[in-house]
């Protein structure tokens, strides 16, 4: 067993004894109206008469029913199931007797409530199991005291405590009251992996029934008596800001209460890393119903003016950074020209091993290829929205938000209220993909509520959502490989850049596997805002790198998987440099599993296969994508996927996420693109922005996990980046053409031929 | 403003709204039936799919004045206890990720199977192609529709 100190997140264990009388006291709960019914339906046994809170993560009813508070925001990873599974495992409770509730924003109790960066399960792995193990320990102590036997002799299984020698046994519910009064142990034992009964078992989504019956659960579903609907009008182009507004005509429209202007930041406010906002000065229109506000919004007469160039200091995860935001109205054509220009120049050297210049000078053959990708919009199905109700110096918020804590300083500053007066519910998000980490819309809702003295639900239209910014940046990468006269790879050079950031990971594979290696980067400032988009930077680099390696393998006359495994062998046995940030053994392991599961090498007639592998977010993922040509159109028949993300908590849910990542990646590789003309996004809704639909999804996907006992690493992002490369490589096999520019499917000539 | 008596999920509901109001907002804002989702407002994504006289339609472009006395079914009225064959299949396959588009997907699938109890794969693809799932649950959606069809025909 693993002995673990309970000091991590110890505040979560500060008990509130008033809870012994039952009831939920963790702040307000906006979705209460539907909860009791839902809870009853979910429970295998009846609702208890009394609840006993053991720690902030769980309470036990007098009849043994357990409610688990899941700490992190949910946007589709199914962590509302897998996080409670971690607690239930160590509590040793029957999963059928578990109810799941969403914890509100409360950092003292729940730590960093952050969903992003594929960090959820990884960071909660120990603390949540500890919460369950602590409760189990206290229940055993309570039974030991009641039965006057040593606690070490008491067994806990499926919610029942028993003592063999004395013949005593009791359900958790019977001991919960006494357990809740006991001191929190200094250390608890966690189970060995082999003893898991819940972790590793596919467990159905706890919210599935509520989802398929259309129950109120998303931020945008929120309703409150007296609530007004608000919408915003932001500048039509990046590089513009508000000059003046005439809201007379809009205000005269039916159902309209007010037209106001808001300013999202107080002067001099030091922004955090997620305060990105191209349009901090906005017009807001407020009325009784969504349709009325939508109609009146069209009647707003707003004058916009060009923005001046600015310099911003941002205090984010990487410390303080200064960003230059130029003036002007930018266009994609100009972006492309500037990118080509910088790509042709020497970049900033980030890593150099050996003597790449000499290797290139003496090369028998040099392979050089350039790759590019456009801006992407996140396009979560649920457009941005937020509920806020400001009363005096207090505010209640319910909004889809990936990192509640990081918007708190902004809300406090912009509203002029103390941070501790901000209460936040964390409703389910209708998609996030990184976009809902940038919660400017929450600040906007709160400012509007403060101005109109009413509870307000701010709704972005799809057009508002798609044109607001915080996009995946546009990127470019040039790869060069030097081959000697025997077709051996002697040097590799990567130079990558983007607007406004470089996508380079200088220390990732194939760095460490090649004697002579060089990585350079460059970037171009812009006023078009960008942000995290599922596997930031990796989502471009993986595709470029894996397509290039495919071409290098071909030039060397090698099988693409065998070629990668040879490089990984070198990186494992005789690594070049010391900064390599991947485990070559795990990387090779995932490729070997893929080779076996995909029956690589067993060529099927008319099936064109592409392979790709990548490491990011602490995990390893690899795909084989099978294409056929159907009436001149490439059709993705199957994707075989292998992943090493350590222990898999909920295998079927993890497979679902991998399937989604694969489909998301194929969609973005084929169609994803946002362009600009004079600062104006050229796509505003789904009639212009092509999204992948069912007909273009693979006909089949099979997902395989490397079995090991490594603590869980990332899962939401890792399967996404490599699919771009697998698709590009399969398209080459199917069409004879290499694809260097995303999106692969565009107004250019058809892919086939 | 005008008064409309609507037949929704087997009940008559009266609303006093602008005749041009799309059913999506009548359902969500006025009747608090929030299972029907807003995704695009221009009939491109399918998140707002409801049944009008048994046909799958986009509530975001269906004005309240066009409904008349036709029967409307929303996701809330599809079954009493999540036991419509399509809902059961969705639960069996554990389709949803974020879940936002799923009510619309289910309403489209239910209408498809009402009209075509035994659809081929390409008929499923064609019928479901108007519904976007940004999380990419398409392979599971297709499987759930197939299971629902099988259970209907069993």
Structure summary:
Chain A is of the alpha+beta class.
Description:
Chain A is of the alpha+beta class. Chain A folds into three domains: 2-212, 2-Layer Sandwich (Aldehyde Oxidoreductase, domain 4), CATH 3.30.365; 219-310 and 384-459, Aldehyde Oxidoreductase, domain 4, CATH 3.30.365.10; 346-375 and 471-735, Aldehyde oxidase/xanthine dehydrogenase, molybdopterin binding domain (Aldehyde Oxidoreductase, domain 4), CATH 3.30.365. In chain A, the strands form nine sheets. Chain A has a seven-stranded mixed beta sheet with strand order 12-14-10-23-20-21-22, with helices on both faces. With 154 residues, chain B is of the alpha+beta class. Chain B folds into two domains: 2-75, Beta-grasp domain (Ubiquitin-like (UB roll), Roll); 85-153, DNA polymerase, domain 1 (Orthogonal Bundle). Chain B has five helices and five strands. Chain B has a five-stranded mixed beta sheet, sandwiched between helices. In chain B, strand 1 and strand 2 form a beta hairpin. In chain B, helix 3 packs parallel to helix 5 (138-153). The longest helix of chain B is centred in the C-terminal third of the chain and has 16 residues, at 138-153. In chain B, 57% of the residues are buried. The interface between A and B is large, with 67 and 63 residues.
Task: List descriptors.
heterodimer, A: 753 residues, alpha+beta, Aldehyde Oxidoreductase, domain 4, 3 domains, 7-stranded mixed beta sheet, 5-stranded mixed beta sheet, 18 helices, 28% helix, globular, B: 154 residues, Ubiquitin-like (UB roll), 36% helix
- Domain count of chain A: 3
- On the 0-100 scale, what is the average pLDDT of chain A? 93
Second-tier CATH architecture of the largest domain in chain A: 2-Layer Sandwich
- Tell me the overall shape of chain A: globular
Please give the domain count of chain B: 2
Instruction: Evaluate the radius of gyration of chain A.
Output: 28 Å
CATH topology of the largest domain in chain A: Aldehyde Oxidoreductase, domain 4
Oligomer description: heterodimer
The fraction of residues assigned to DSSP E strands of chain B is 15-25%
Looking at CATH, which topology of the largest domain in chain B would you report?
Ubiquitin-like (UB roll)
The greatest inter-chain interface is formed by: A-B, 67 and 63 residues
Q: What is the name of the CATH class of the largest domain in chain A?
A: Alpha Beta
> How far apart lie the N and C ends of chain A?
60 Å
**Major beta-sheet overview of chain B:** 5 strands, mixed
Shape summary of chain B: globular
